[in-house]
Amino acid sequence: MLKVMIIDDEDYIREGLKKILDWNRYGFYICGEASNGLRGLTHVRELNPDLVIVDVRMPIMDGLEMIRDLRVDDVPCEFIVLSAYSDFKYAQMAIELGIDSYILKPIEQPVLIEKVSKAYDRIMNKKHIKQNMDLSISFSRDKILQSIIFDTIDVQTLEMYSSFYGFDFPWSNYRIALVEIEGEHLKEMTMKMSVKKNIESIISENKLGYVFDIENYVGILFNDMKLMTNLEILHDLPLQINGLCGADIIIVLGSLVENLSDILYSFHHASKLLNRKFILGSKRIISDTIEDTNIAGEDGNVRLGYSLEHIVDSLYKGIDAGNIDQIEDVMDGVFQEFLYDGYCEDVIKVNYSNIYSATVNKLVSVNPEMQEKLSVSQEVLKEICKKVSLQELHVYMKYIFIKILEELDKKRPDDPVKKILDYIGRNYNHDLKLETIAALFNYNSDYLGKKIRLNTGKHFNTYLDTIRVEKAIQFLREGYKVYQVAQKTGFKDINYFYKKFKFYVGVSPSDFKGRS
């Protein structure tokens, strides 16, 4: 919708012009009015109307004098001049000012409609021409700035274009920034154009550098000396852009360079930081000196300091024992591994998903009665994919594992020692040691040994052997082979299994199986 302003010293004329047409129907809305040329001059400069309907003769300043002053200032609006006089000199003066819409009072509606419609067409045509010219100039300017970055332009050509586009090189220091649009607007071309236009307006107004398109981003070539003295403008930029066009943006600053010919290094550095934005956190502005050293294997799996099996086993033990500190320690170790070794977002999320799935599956295998509540959740896997930073993903996964711990803890005995005995009863087939269990449950090993003996009447090793042999008897009766039973009950050496089984049962596992 275009803006129209009405300027006439007669109140009834102004009111009549408001009502004589359905202005919206003809593409306009009335943005203001004035009773003389001097007030009109001020209002036009403030409100920037597209069309001004103005009377010729008014007190203080007449309409033609007002138009003349606006023409001197290059104010780009159309005029329709009104007059109660048919004197040719007024029409001649209007024509000299480039105005061809002249209406005699009293105003007839059909004549006004014709003049307003023609004015609308002229205004829209000028807007389209200007828009196309701006796009063409912007596109060409972008190409020159891209050529500067990629060092594909010679000095003589650069000097020529610098003069044409008003580039004020050389500067003492240079820096590239890349602006990425986030979220649902990521691939919208119209949104990118809007973001670029608004950034360009802010950067140009403050004379901080030049804005251009580059690949999928909006680029900014900063005069670093001016940027450093106007950092508040940079810090406010994401919030300003969100307010102006509703886009969420991330600004990534490349390294500082002293020569224009070295600006490619700053661009490469900014590109690397963009690849690491998931690790560096959900900040609106990213500036860092860490280089991108991705050591993920060709298969996309991370070469962690600890194996996936070790991480899952440690998490499993912490969750099954109700040890929140162990969960946090293990997850903090994983976080640090990813933070400092430069893995990309997809690889990190795949590995977190693998850790989650393997841990839950191991818990279900030991707690089959909890399968319905513990099975791998597709919702959790979807949430892992949605996280926008490593920190956010880290916090979320600790929350999920602690939530699982709390669910399992509802089924555990309240008494601390009985809880430990319950743990031993579930994990008899693992490599259990008194010292390891004591550390897991925050006990001194000697003290825990005494507590187990008081509650069971047996030393720890004897109590564990008893459970394992009882389970071995069960498995042999179910038809398992002797070597399978040894493996299922935590005996790594089959000869040792034979020895222990015979000690407690009185016959060898083979003889027992034969009798059964």
Task: Please give the structural blueprint.
Blueprint: E1 2-7, H1 11-20, E2 28-34, H2 37-47, E3 51-55, H3 63-72, E4 78-83, H4 88-96, E5 102-104, H5 109-149, H6 155-165, E6 174-181, H7 189-205, E7 209-214, E8 217-223, H8 224-228, H9 231-245, E9 249-253, H10 263-275, H11 277-280, E10 285-287, H12 308-321, H13 324-340, H14 345-366, H15 371-374, H16 378-386, H17 390-409, H18 416-426, H19 434-440, H20 445-456, H21 460-477, H22 482-488, H23 494-505, H24 509-515
Parallel strand pairs: 1-2, 1-3, 3-4, 4-5, 9-10
Antiparallel strand pairs: 6-8, 6-9, 7-8
CATH class call of the largest domain: Alpha Beta
**Neighbour order of strands in the largest sheet:** 2-1-3-4-5
Number of domain units: 4
Report the mean per-residue pLDDT as an integer: 87
| Sheet having the most strands | 5 strands, parallel
- Please state roughly what percent of the residues sit in beta strands, choosing from under 5%, 5-15%, 15-25%, 25-35%, 35-45% or over 45%: 5-15%
The radius of gyration computed from the alpha-carbon positions, rounded to a whole number of angstroms, is 39 Å
* Helix percentage range: 55-70%
Number of helices: 24
Q: Could you give the distance between the termini?
A: 93 Å
Low-pLDDT residue spans: 289-303
Q: Can you tell me the CATH superfamily of the largest domain? A: Response regulator
Number of strands: 10
The gross shape turns out to be elongated
Query: By helix and strand content, what is the structural category?
Result: alpha/beta
| CATH architectural arrangement of the largest domain | 3-Layer(aba) Sandwich
CATH topology of the largest domain: Rossmann fold
GO molecular function: DNA-binding transcription factor activity; sequence-specific DNA binding
InterPro entries: CheY-like_superfamily (IPR011006), Homeodomain-like_sf (IPR009057), HptR (IPR051552), HTH_AraC (IPR018060), HTH_AraC-typ_CS (IPR018062), Sig_transdc_resp-reg_receiver (IPR001789)
Subcellular location: Cytoplasm
Keywords: Cytoplasm, DNA-binding, Phosphoprotein, Transcription, Transcription regulation, Two-component regulatory system
